[in-house]
Write a structure and sequence with these properties.
There is one protein chain. The chain has helices at residues 12-27, 48-60, 79-91, 100-113, 116-128, 244-255, 258-281, 287-309, 326-345, 356-368, 378-389, 399-404, and strands at 133-136, 152-155, 162-168, 179-185, 196-202, 208-213, 222-232. The chain is an alpha+beta fold and 406 residues long. The strands form two sheets. A four-stranded antiparallel beta sheet has the order 2-3-7-6, with no helix packed on it. Strands 1-4-5 form a three-stranded mixed beta sheet. The longest helix is centred in the middle third of the chain and has 24 residues, at 258-281. The N and C termini lie far apart (48 Å). Keywords: FAD, Flavoprotein, Oxidoreductase. Residues 134-228 form the Acyl-CoA oxidase/dehydrogenase middle domain. Pfam families: Acyl-CoA_dh_1, Acyl-CoA_dh_M, Acyl-CoA_dh_N.
């Protein structure tokens, strides 16, 4: 195997890497030591209050929203330095960000599409780690098919507020959030991409109910959110009524890219745990297991370098062609890694004991079963790759929906 490209230790970027690593080594200690490698996918309900305190510590020293422009509270770091930050943060075992959805999704969307009033109101709380957001996209009948949302928003002619009725599902950390961004249908009789609105909605109000969904891992990071006459002000519409699809798709575009560099470093840690488990169980002497570990390592490198290729997207959430394959690739790779984790542990993997390494690998196996479903199923992802990245003819759809599509 070839070594990673050498970087001159005297380079300014390498000095910045050392600065990040030193900060993490100094601060991810004491009461925060228990947060190492916690709070990621499948483990997001771990230590929520302490992770909020950690977020505020990051904010104090300027490590939240490092890629945002300085005028909105960020550091304005170059892409290269953002990559370094995410790599070193994950390598040190930095916990999952409680404010991930605000920092990587909503914040950049407001910077690109929000009003000045919205930027002044909402961006400072995201940077400071004091206001948390969740995502109101999926519904029981509109998971991967987001254009089928049925949650309704109607304007109150007396107050000008928007009144919301409907249900959202698989809403990560809704029980820890103060706000939710919601895609709803604001034009009666509209279908598909037309007639949608993108709303910023406070959760602490009458007409909003959050119900936890207990998963096979035992955690409850996901929720259902029910709206029954919930309200939000006219000033909380991002874009204009009817332009919700455009804003919603831009937001998903911001999801792909730099934050996934850190995710892949967490994957690297999981692979290291698998190697350790294989040595302990003796399964590392099995040629098939050794081959699968090698394939996982190579797949992780392919994923990393392709992600670096995608960082040429626009500031408006638009994507390069290479970016369209990332979700399909990593979700299938990670599902296979979960299977490898159980096989590497052998029979011991079927036993629940108080051992973090084993428990974490069991979580990886259980949670990764959902990876090819969340954020668009494999089938939807293949359609997106074919139609948007390769320009192939659209899949045949019912005539009523075809007319509604842009």
């Amino acid at each position: 195997m070839h070594n990673e490209p050498h970087i001159d230790v005297s380079s300014p970027d390498q000095a910045f890497r050392a600065e990040v690593a030193q900060w993490m080594a100094t601060h991810l200690t004491g009461k925060f030591a228990c947060l190492r490698h916690r709070g990621g996918a499948g483990d997001e309900d771990a230590y929520p209050e302490l992770r909020k305190e950690w977020a505020q510590l990051l904010a104090r020293d300027g490590w939240n929203c490092v890629g945002w422009p300085e005028q909105y509270g960020g550091r304005g770091l170059s892409v290269a330095r953002q990559i370094i930050f995410h790599e070193e943060y994950a390598r040190a075992g930095g916990p999952g960000h409680m404010g991930h959805l605000g920092e990587t999704l909503l914040g950049p969307t407001l910077i690109a599409y929000g009003s000045e009033e919205q930027k002044r109101r909402f961006l400072p709380g995201i940077v400071a780690g004091t206001e948390y957001w969740c995502q109101g996209y999926s519904e029981p009948g509109a998971g991967s098919d987001l254009a089928n949302v049925q949650t309704r928003a109607r304007r109150d002619p007396a107050s000008g507020e928007w009144i919301i009725d409907g249900q959202k599902v698989w809403t990560s950390l809704a029980h820890e959030s103060q706000w939710i961004f919601v895609v709803a249908r604001c034009e009666p009789g509209s279908r598909g991409h037309a007639g949608l609105i993108f709303l910023l909605v406070p959760l602490a109000q009458p007409g909003v109910e959050v119900r936890p969904i207990r998963q096979i891992t035992g955690s409850c990071e996901f929720n259902e959110v029910f709206f029954d006459g919930a309200r939000t002000g006219a000033q909380n519409v991002v874009g204009a009524p009817g332009q919700g699809w455009k804003v919603a798709m831009a937001l998903l575009g911001f999801e792909r890219g730099l934050s996934w560099i850190g995710m892949q470093t967490h994957f690297e840690h999981q692979l290291a745990l698998i190697c350790k488990a294989a040595r302990e169980s003796g399964s590392d002497r099995d040629p098939a297991i050794r081959a699968r570990i090698g394939q996982a390592w190579m797949g992780l490198k392919v994923m990393h370098y392709n992600t670096l290729r995608t960082l040429s997207g626009g500031d408006d959430g638009s994507l390069s062609r290479e970016a369209y394959i990332i979700k399909y690739y990593w979700s299938n790779w990670h599902r296979d890694l979960g299977k490898l984790a159980m096989d590497a542990m052998g029979a011991d993997g079927d036993i629940l004991i108080d051992d973090f390494s084993r428990t974490r690998l069991q979580q990886v196996f259980l949670f990764s079963r959902s990876d090819t479903i969340v954020a668009g199923t494999n089938e939807i992802q293949l359609n997106i790759i074919a139609e948007r990245a390769l320009g192939m003819p659209r899949e045949a759809r019912p005539q009523t929906q075809e007319k509604a599509a842009p």
